[in-house]
Amino acid sequence: KQWYQRRVRVRNTDITEVVLPLPGYDVLFPDNCCKQYFEEVLQGDGMSLDHFKGSLGKEFNVSGAYRNIIFKPSEFEADILKYKEEDEKLVATDMDRILERKFERVQEGNRTAIRLQFKLPKSCYATMLLRELRRHDGI
After folding, report:
1. By the 8 A CB rule, do 70 and 18 touch?
2. How many CB atoms are located within 10 Å of the residue 119 CB?
3. Which end of the chain is more exposed for a tag (fewer CB within 10 A), N or C?
4. Number of H helices, E strands in the chain
């Protein structure tokens, strides 16, 4: 019954709530393959999880952390842009904004581009988001 309860809890967990531990003295590893993997990798380098407690010197005193494996971007917007020339300016630049230049463009032409706008927290990379979006046939 305990196994079943854990399984139900996992099924009802959103993937964005799943975290992975980053090794350190303040991190509790689950007693599963994740901990075993970290231990094997560290052993390969002649280390163990205990080394993060400062036994290698102050510069290696690492507390560790937990990182979500997936983040959903917030304030996500996508626009399809039509344009004529290959080097045509499609969006306002930061300099346009700083100098308060008006930027208007006409939506016409035989070329198509997509403009994405979104926010990600620190340590998340837009390149990974773009890679995942490109995996879908429609893009």
Report:
1. yes
2. 10
3. N
4. 4, 4
Structure tokens at 32: 């599963």
Q: For residues 75 and 60, what is the distance between their CA atoms, to the nearest angstrom? A: 38
Q: Measured between alpha carbons, how far is 4 from 17 in angstroms, rounded to an integer?
A: 20
Return d(Cα 92, Cα 114) in angstroms, integer: 14
Can you give the pTM of this predicted structure?
A: 0.60
Q: Which residue has the tokens 């975290």?
A: 19
pLDDT in tens, 82-121: 999 998 889 889 999 999 998 888 888 999 999 999 999 8
Q: Rounded distance, CA 67 to CA 121, Å?
A: 12
> How far, in Å, CA of 40 to CA of 54, rounded?
20
Give yes or no for a contact between 92 and 103, defined as CB atoms under 8 angstroms apart: yes
Place of tokens 């002649």: 46
Asked if pLDDT for residue 10 goes beyond 80, the answer is no
Longest dimension (CA), the chain: 65
DSSP-assigned letters across all residues of 38-92: HHHHHHHTT--GGGGGTTT-GGG----EEEES----EEEEEEEEEESSTT---S-
What's the pLDDT tens digit per position in 48-90? Answer: 888 777 665 666 678 888 888 888 899 999 999 999 999 888 9
